[in-house]
Hints:
By secondary structure, the protein is of the alpha+beta class.
Amino acid sequence: xxxxxxxxxxxxxxxxxxxxxxxxxxxxxxxxxxxxxxxxxxxxxxxxxxxxxxxxxxxxxxxxxxxxxxxxxxxxxxxxxxxxxxxxxxxxxxxxxxxxxxxxxxxxxxxxxxxxxxxxxxxxxxxxxxxxxxxxxxxxxxxxxxxxxxxxxxxxxxxxxxxxxxxxxxxxxxxxxxxxxxxxxxxxxxxxxxxxxxxxxxxxxxxxxxxxxxxxxxxxxxxxxxxxxxxxxxxxxxxxxxxxxxxxxxxxxxxxxxxxxxxxxxxxxxxxxxxxxxxxxxxxxxxxxxxxxxxxxxxxxxxxxxxxxxxxxxxxxxxxxxxxxxxxxxxxxxxxxxxxxxxxxxxxxxxxxxxxxxxxxxxxxxxxxxxxxxxxxxxxxxxxxxxxxxxxxxxxxxxxxxxxxxxxxxxxxxxxxxxxxxxxxxxxxxxxxxxxxxxxxxxxxxxxxxxxxxxxxxxxxxxxxxxxxxxxxxxxxxxxxxxxxxxxxxxxxxxxxxxxxxxxxxxxxxxxxxxxxxxxxxxxxxxxxxxxxxxxxxxxxxxxxxxxxxxxxxxxxxxxxxxxxxxxxxxxxxxxxxxxxxxxxxxxxxxxxxxxxxxxxxxxxxxxxxxxxxxxxxxxxxxxxxxxxx
Length: 630
């Protein structure tokens, strides 16, 4: 693997300018990040699975011990990366604790009458087990009496089997719509999101000043297999209250802010307000670069305004699913108000500029925070970026087409690349211009022009290296942790090819939690229309364990489903259990074994079923991103 290059003169100069323009640091964030520490995480913390594979490691970040940022890392990102190294068990309020630094997210533990309520048990069960063990080391062997999932992202539910034993029956609380959102958000576009997430989180990058240093809301994402257990109790509306193990909760529903299903909660007897991810110590994502549905910035700001009205006069401490708490009523009101104004300004100014005729890319070049918001640390674009979020808001309202007919039917990257290269005078001339741009500190243009050559001539080693060098400097220069990871991952893949080392396999609990219709919808996205168009098929499915009947029809190269019917004209009727189908999908059993044991039987033409399954492509998880697909 080629070693990363060092920072250029342009990068060093940009960092010097950035350092001079940063807000004053009064040490308040550092004090709050360390406040309440009861038991520090081991400095060499590593969490492994049963096979010994390391799923989570803080030990790899020892290079962050230096207070001074190296020239290859933006000084504001270095500051945040060091703050995110505060790891261990912290007391937030009386009877409220957090384990931080054991995954990308925080696990909150609220002591009740009989035991402890676990809020958001991380990504991986192994990490959740280790976090609970750290809590018990300090607070005793309290049993888990309930689990609360605040929202439907995997870093807030995936570790549940690390705190709830098999067969153990305890209340599991979540916002209305949680299960559907948790299992469906990444199913349809799952393989693409996983691939893009490797760029966003720098999964395959080495940890270090020239590699991955942080992801802004934590150090990174653990790589265990997420789990899921059925919800027993739902929060359905703002103002709903509940007594959970003797602790009173007041809930605020905030769906479609940071997640499709999400809630905030307040503990009135303890003055503790959890706003999860509607407010954090960075600008969050309106449109995440891993890919997701665009979030509603206007509604987000309105939910924060409601949080202030509901809880602002009573909250003594505010905490969330990432970062560190804020203490004091005045400080909380100010913090929430500034976060509210951040998302409102971003929304309103994007629409204002669109009204003046600017498109998404033009708005990204123009949008700025007000002087008051720009002077704050917690509004900076270390996770969500001002530029990308503005483009997302524009897209939410107006779509990706900007109204200019030249962009109605744009050329594919390879076609455009070859034409640009020809127009410039050939690859050598294009690379000569790109190299000069890089030397002049115009890295964006250098990366763009070299990228055209890469897509025109994928085997052009000089083009691959020049774009990698430009990406590298752009990565070093950006304050945004996810942009840095994307740039540096792109540089690595240009030099070394794609690595699938950290890609996560399908999580068994997630597959089993899919509704049958969701599972068939996911199958439909794998249907090869060209092959399917040659033969129409009707396959009926009878799931005896669920008493569900389905008919799948393949017509004109498309797959459609009908629930509650076994079509009498089906070429094949499959009788099995949903559990058997799950095991086949998860490759826990072989098809020949399922047929041989009678777990699957087919009435009609067995070759029709085989023909249908043969129409499904297995999506690659290592497709190229920075180079053309072969």
